[in-house]
Amino acid sequence: MATEPTSADVAQFCEITSLDPMLDRNLVVSALKSNTSLDQLIGEYYENSDAFRRKYTWDDTAFGAGREGEPNNTGIAFNIEAPDNAVIHGVTPPPDNGFYGPSAGAPSRPPSRTNNRSPLGAPSSAEQYEEDLQRAMAESKKAVGYDPQEAGVTDTGTNAPYFGPANRSDYDQNNWAMVTTATTSSQAVVDGDPTPSARKRDEGAPAFLIYKPNARSASQRLGSVLTILHEIPLARNVLLQAGEQAASYGHNSEWWKGQPIYAPHVLAAIQQGEHQWAENSKPDFHEELHRLMAFLDLTERSYGSVEAMADLIPKSNFSLERQFYDTLDEKTDVEVLKPLTHLARPLSLQTLEPTQEPTRFAFLNFELTKSQYEQTKTLYDAWNWIVWHESMTWAEVQPNMGMVVLDDMGEVMTVNIDGEDPPEYLEIPEVWYPERYLESRKEEARICQEHLAWVARALYEARSREYELTKWIDPKTDKIHDKGEMLLNTLKEYERHVDYLDGLGRFRELQKLENEDEKQYIRLEDVPCVKTEAEEALAKSAQQVVDRCSWELSQLEETKKRLDWERERLLERQKLLSSTLLTDPDKPGLAKPFTSKKFLLRGIATSQNVTYVCKRAGPALIDIGEAPAPVDQWWRLSYEAGSANPAKAEKYSFDQVMRQVHRETKGPLLVYATEDAMNTPASPLSDALQRFARAENKNFRQELNQETTDEGAQLRNTNMSPISPSKRKYRSGSVDSMATNRASLGNSDTNSRAGDFDSDPFGEGDGTTDTDMTGLAARQSATDTASRNLAEVVRSGKTHNAEQAYNTNPPSILGQQKLSTPTPIDGVEDISRTVTPDGEEQPKGPEMQERAGGGGGSPFMARHSIYGMTHDPRDEQKTIKMMDMEIPDEHQQLQD
């Protein structure tokens, strides 16, 4: 029995979902008692709030319903006979509006034929034809919930109805509005995934993993990390070898969207209603990792979701990418994971001896401060702050300081630029050498740190001298002033004083002239300057200040130029020590050759659903007789929800990648790999993983065919009303169903499968309805074929070689239009759709085949009535073997 949720849980759920704590309390309590986690309930509510309310709202009408769920207002708890509705040839019978949908009728015998007309009894008069036509239209409207139309203006009051033309007074002008009659294409893209044809993988393009917009960890970049690691053969092999290989990886038609695939025993317990959700109920971490690698290997889709994997990673304050590596390290054997990990060993700068136990890591996060990032220009600078932290911070080398060296390095390195305000531009090398940080270079590393410390001190002293030279602090106000600006302002001020005194002496001489015409046309500059003794003294003093300020400014500029020259030389030396020294193995003058491997940049993750990955194409021969040279191609893989074409795979050059990366983010996630990692042969997928990938591709082909079928049906129905109900809406897929009119239409299987729409019983028509029904019959036949194919399991005894199993290009879909079958069209999509490979289906009667055609009683499969079906003990046996599925591929069988 489920435990009663606390008031705090109810209040928390209501606060997150904005539900009313009083009015919706019973709904929230019912949801929390379902043993579902709070995060899943919140996601379920935001995905579809109406479905959430229907699922967890108590409804006791089933206790008063009949056997098949129909309402029973007479007090009788059972019905012996099915309703005797008159049969109109080719018309959908009316529903009974039962609790569980249309009534299936009595299971013991066919409906009474007393009042049913024979199919051969076609209308013999125009009056009878008109009566049947009006009746058929009324039944069709009733089936889709339309009220009968009345002519004129209806009035529900006491006044007698008035039949006549509608006048302006009969309408409220404020009630008119523009509404949409169907979901627009843009809205369809925002609300869900694009059409299957828009999700098809381009030839040669890599598949990638994304987060959906409503995912619970949508801000992380785990999908990008796994996509990049998959394009590194050695990393892919490691992830496939991690953990134990499963005999079966199950199947779920919604797995590519992020739905989990549960273990068979969990599904069996869920089906029996005995399962209590716990940590061990989740899918296996390694199995999910294997599924993702197989998906990226062989999928025909352009993208898939990584949400199922994200749900298996424990939540913490660290990023999801770091938690993934920590979980992988915790659950995986050390030797298996060794190619992805590296050893960091702390040493003493004085003795160069270890001071602490070494630490093995696979993911490195650069969490630098703002001041450190201000001095960081390249990726090597960021590494210096990590491994030479103490000497870089204090700008000196002391005996008690330490450093970190790298040892026992793997083949793949993953780093993340993080911290406080990273620089707008960080130089990211395409080739990175860790030579200077190796334990074998610890002597050179100490010398390099000593030189860097000396350069840092010299730069500090140069900045201090420049500060003292250019700044002046007012002792009264402690305000800092720029000396250059102060000298320039003083110079201009005293120059104005000198000019004023000079002008004053000239003006007095001008006033002494007696000729007014001469005064008017003479220039002031042409008048001699005659000053008094006091004015001469003031002018001389002001001129001395001007001369001194000019000299001080010239000296200041000279000193600044000299300091700038020294600082440029120091910065060049610092760049040589921090970013250039021991980074080029071909540089002449090396004391000893490089021992580290060359790491190549293989991928960059910038944001949630944007990944830059370098895909290695097949080798190409440059000249005849030469060794093949690998060809690398950069791709930009992006998913933009809401656009007409959300999934894009674009080819980029490395220069384009660098420009785009710096536009998109200041904190990229980088993945480097060695040449050995890239040249490692890819290990083949296991038979179970190949079956899983083929089943997934089969499901996608059915989606493609379903899209083609729907488009064809829309073209056939262009002359029909868009709101016209299907004429076979309530007909079962069984030929021998007694819940439909087929029992009254005769016992011909052929006629029953086609719905007897090949002939026109009324002797006339335009052929539109016949074409529509023929298309629906063909769709039903294709669906039956799809069901038979899904129920078959073919265990392949053929082992694929490494190249075939690791072909990351989308497999050929030759003959897809002929061989693939559409998905069911009943509108019910199961969550964990499985097929038992070795469980034989027991024969059933025709009626029970119809009733059990939708699957078992698992809540992760198509939902069925728990009141109208008896428990079959064979269901438990089938459920235990569920999660193994291989959908046979016809063209593969033909090739074999």
From TrEMBL:
Source domain of life: Eukaryota
GO CC field: cytosol; nucleus
Composition-biased stretches (Basic and acidic residues): 132-144, 841-850
Biased composition, class Low complexity, residue ranges: 101-113
Biased composition, class Polar residues, residue ranges: 715-724, 734-753, 802-817
Coiled coil: none
GO biological process, one term: protein deubiquitination
Region (Disordered): 87-168, 705-773, 798-817, 832-865
Residue ranges, compositional bias (Acidic residues): 757-769
InterPro entries linked: Ucp6/RUP1, UIM_dom
Matching PANTHER family: UBA DOMAIN-CONTAINING PROTEIN RUP1
Protein name: Ubiquitin interaction domain-containing protein
Organism listed in the record: Colletotrichum tabaci
